[in-house]
Amino acid sequence: MRVNFTVNGVEQTADDVWEGESLLYVLRERVGLPGSKNACEQGECGSCTVYLDGTPVCACLVAAGQAEGREVRTVEGLADGERLDPIQEAFVECGAVQCGFCTPGLLVQAHDLIERVPEPSDPEIREALAGNLCRCTGYEKILDAVRLAAARKAEAGR
Amino acid sequence: MSTMTTRRTARGTAQGVGASAPRPDGRAKVTGRFAYSSDLRRDGMLWGATLRSPHPHALIRRLDVTPALALPGVHAVLTGEDVPGSRTYGMKVSDQPVLATGVVRHHGEPVAVVAADHPETARRALRLIRAEYEPLAPLTDPEAALAAGSLVRHVRIRHGDLAAARERAEVVVAGEYEVGMQDQAFLGPESGLAVPLPDGGVELHVSSQWLHTDRRQVAACLGLPEERVRLVLAGVGGAFGGREDLSVHVHACLLALRTGRPVAMSYGREESFLGHVHRHPARLRIEHGATRDGRIAYVTARLLLDGGAYTSTSPVVIANACYFAAGAYEVPAAAIDGYTVFTNNPPCGAMRGFGAVQSCYGVESNLDRLAAALGADPLDLRIRNAMRPGTILPTGQAVDGPAPVAELLRRLAARPLPPREPYDPRAMPGGVGNATRGESVRRGVGYAVGVKAIGYSGGVDDGSVARVTLAVDAGGPVARVRSAAAECGQGIVTVQAQIARTELGVERVEVLGADTGAGDAGSSSASRQTWMTGGAVRGACAAVRERVLGRAAALLGTPAGALALDGGAIVRADTGEVALELEEALAGGEITAEHEYRHRPTTGIDPETGQGDAHVAFAFAAHRAVVDVDVELGLVRVVEMATAQDVGTAINPLAVEGQIEGGTAQGLGLALMEEMRVEDGRVLNPSFTDYLIPTILDMPPVRMDLLHLPHPDSPYGVNGVGEPPSLSSTPAVANALRNATGLDLPRVPVRPEHIAGRAEEVRPGTT
Known about the structure:
heterodimer, A: Ubiquitin-like (UB roll), DNA polymerase, domain 1, B: Aldehyde Oxidoreductase, domain 3, 3 domains, seven-stranded mixed β-sheet, metal-binding (chain A), Diverse_Oxidoreductases (chain A), oxidoreductase (chain A), (2Fe-2S)-binding protein (chain A)
């Protein structure tokens, strides 16, 4: 089948999509955007988190056909050209990135949190990121990064 | 000193040794551009997939691949008969079949591989292979395996006058403890891309902890000379020991060489759980004898580790478990026997802590039991018996280098306990499940301390090679560092760049990708890489510096000893003033030097007594866990983890903290939730739905006290930092649970049913 959708603001057409393919597979293999990661393929780890019409979803749990006519935003679409989003900057700066495999999904989820809750409390951060597994960091630096990015975004908005 | 020179000098060293320099791969990792081993694609490439045994032990009666080969899109189906070289591989002993022939010895053992033009076609082809098995009775009980003589290695350590120590001991406490099978659970599954080369060789891009040892094994299996097998480190999504053994390596190369096309392989999560070794499950019997004044008189330990179906690194894991089975204490006498056995359970091998995790759990659990028997405070008892420089280990070696065990424990003691918070369901055991309003919640506090050797023990002749080039290009002065050190997330790329900045005084450093074209850097394991490859980079930089300063000295007519490198220029050592631009000094061409770093020699241990100077260095960490336990439901919330660790000189303080927080989390996971459930040899929970690792809701804040005692033997005074936090974290949590509930809780992970409704079993005299 053919799937038409928008990815990071660009209209995309994927051809010869098999009905069983996930949005994650189409992004990685047919659209050439391997930033979203496949670490469990059953919605447990959050590494493939992308925005679908503005809502974070696990791309591995979305059938490719469900993306027809919709807007997807991936980790590759968070930066404004070469200018990183504050959440991306903060992840690097705070040491929230080690192996980095969980990072793309965490960035999208944290980006969404800060959009919804400009100055989230620690329990709010923990709740929002509870579906994103990280094996390297123990999460402390991730909390630091989200706090820093939220503060910077709030500052910039004032 | 001119202001210009001052500014340039400061700039040159701002991101050097001791700075929390950002990762050079950080930007690529946050923009999705970093290429992991599962992201590699080539035109015309095929997808590989693996058929695995559903049985823990069986004869292969029939293996007919013709129906799979007939499926459109399938290009090759290979079995063990198709392996041209050695049909087995292994880091220590070559006994693990590339593809099983005749017999399978564990659930998930690879039996055949397929290459097809779509991953789903490859998976469907696997289902078309006619594999018929005759199941055999699996040997799954390690005690039965030991009785049957199915032994990998027995390590025996005899220390001091045990008989006299027994006479002296007024209080004797013995306990039996168990550790479940933990998994590394790195997020990036095993994957790689094999590309056939025109000369009949192959290039493999793969996740690895040690490219050169992988190449040795891969070449042997392919029947190729090593120079025709090139391994390139692809982006590694975590490792923790789980990438010390081969995974997709030989399979992808076999398929690529057979089809003449690039072949990518990438495991799913289920296959990843089946496709790498795990932490050895352990049964531990620890006995402490002590005098009434709280001095340890002796320790005896019997450790039984289940090695599973193949050798992997079991012989050294059991040795490491035994070396430290008496804990981080002054122990005048000890008798330690460790066994690891073959069974038909999943193969076990390296995981962060490497055997010392299991023995630390046992000895630290028994220490609390000893404290209870003595009526002593567990923390005081630990401090009183703490190991120090000069302490004779059970292996006869005197501890050298910093050994601030008592100080680490005092730091923990000095830290205020976390206050009780006002009621909030999110802060209760069970969290937003709203399981309790706190009526059956008890708080507990537990301590533990651990010691581990850094680097390879037991007479291994270990080294690392790095090559450094100093050049000036269009972007100005640049240092290029080349080594085969595997970056797995820990930050060795950052460390190498920082060392080059400090040694060569240049701001811009490029750490080139790792491949087997570089010298052997050894493994990213045993917490050794910063010490070893850091030493190699430093040595190579020193050689480069000597040569460039020699050139500059000749040009300037100044003694080389009066010059230094800083701020991207040749400066006068006394004033820091720029004496010569690097461009002029390098007018005769760039300078490259290579250096091999080796640590001090060690010896093996005597097979009868276990005596020997086996260790390069030691590292120590301690934890205090504070837990809230709902004793009715068995639910646990860890309120806080506090840790104290001597990290030596920190090349990158931020990365050191990250290692400690991550290691603490993995230890908490082993204490509370992480276990591969294996029943009759079958893995029951190979998924993140059923194998739980800590989420951000499970992890409490980690409070940290770091000592920075420079190690006298290492480059810059560094010490290994990655593994120690994974030792003491687990027993600290377990001891806190025991403190809260009064239960023995001999086994980790502690599950809710070990606690729930067992209040009547609570030992008298505890809260």
